[in-house]
Amino acid sequence: MNAAQSPDFDAIVVGAGIAGLYQVYRLREQGMNVQGIEAAPAVGGTWYWNCYPGARVDSQSHVYQYWFSDEMIEEWDWGERFPAQPETEAYLNFFADKFDLKKDFRFNTRVTSADWDETAHVWRIGTDSGEDLTAKYLVTCAGMLSVPKIPEFPGSEDFKGVIVHTARYPREGIDLAGKKVGVIGCGATGIQVIQTIATEVGKLTVFQRTPSYGVAMNNHALDDEERAHWRAEVPELRKRINETMTGFAFDFDNGSWHDHTSEERTEILDRLWEDGSLAMWVGSFPEVFYDQDVNDEMSDYVRAKIRARVDDPNVAELLTPKDVGFGTYRVPLESNFYEAFNRSNVELVDLLEAPIERLSEQGIVLEGGREFELDVIILATGFDAGTGALTQMNIHGREGHALTREWGEDIRSTLGLQVHGYPNLFTVAGPLAPSTAFCNMTTCLQQQVDWITECIAWVETNGKEAIEPTREKQDAWVAHHDEVTQETLVVKTSSWYTGANIEGKPTSRLLSYLGAATYKEACDEIAASGYEGFSVS
Length: 537
Ligand code: NAP
Description:
This protein is an alpha/beta fold.
């Protein structure tokens, strides 16, 4: 293409999950010629890939939805307070079908390269189908937990059974009845798998390195009355979710920990525990993130809940986190996870005592030689979060900027939405924003898509070619991010929240703890100022 030719598309959107579908819809409504590209054969994103047993949303369905269409809210009936994966995937298909979005996607297609053409001012997108597509804008909605972390255990090729990562679980399922199954990992995903399959398998061996602070989920089926209640709340919810710290309908509404007597605090914690939602975490007290003494007390409260549910005191001790503070990474919600360890067919193996040395033909061998015979190994070992999808995309900006190299050294972004050196590239759920999972995801993703949509409209209306943040603007955002992050207790815990789960990844430049509402204000101010701090050509 030379400078005089038009690009193939006004915009290319990568991903057909919650954000990608909405982004295609919004840009198309704006009259743009949009092409979506999706690696999976169908829509759903996270909710397509994570079809492992027990996969379920940790936000209440009444806040886990699109807000732009009254019709959609009226027509879709959520079945549960916390919907399972099939229902969530069905919801996204409902959205895609209602607005005829599937025709705008190339499925089974992975973006393998993206190069900014400095002469033509377009992105050149290469795919694994061998296509070379051009677009003025590139919007990545590729998910913040979409690249599985698959540990390379020596001897993996020797194992004769089935080995699978939870995010690549076969759609048709695996027959686990009566089988010897091993699960590696006890994060939010491992918890959901373990509690779901414990009753089905013959023998379940759980390989745990770091225990989690599971909070008991209070889930139930919704009836018409409750659905009507939440529909009536929609005008208020729509507003409220944009005003809270984490995009839920609850906030730190209990005031400061220090404003209460010990009895009052216990009463509040008991009430939050009963609610059985993430309110126990991001609807409790703000000090849980900032004050070590408060965090210690809240951690003790949850530890006592865990110990009370496990019969064997030694197993209870192993399942109880000790070295990390409650809520210093996203809290898993669980249903009968701890009770699973009271079953005679479930064994907990402490990898801190003896790590996995290798896989054998039969199963897993620990250092010291203990071997576990297994038919199936399920890897619930997490993700290369926030940056993984983007650093795999082979993105090159202007004048030699290469995202994989740059983020390999130092993760930098402006608002988590644009990166200096990469004109017209927008990164939904990119690092340094609350949307990298310090949020009710649907709130933060829609807010970012809306901002991008307005920004692109502004560039077009003003007859411009390209927009990107200046280096100074980006430096200021990164500095502000670091300041906010370093004040939190999050930096004291090694987890995927800091990037520490991936060897060699720069740490503590992933999530923003600024708060969703404050972040939205910062984004809105930039738009209102005519994109001050951005260079527009
Ligand atoms: P994760 O929190 O990173 O947990 C991975 C687990 O695997 C950890 O226990 C980790 O132990 C272990 N592990 C990793 N590599 C290992 C190795 N080589 N040997 C032994 N153990 C190893 O990942 P996740 O459970 O997939 O959860 C990630 C995020 O996904 C959650 O925080 C949540 O935001 C999201 N999620 C949400 C839902 C929901 O909405 N309901 C459900 C599932 C997941 P170490 O900690 O010791 O490394």
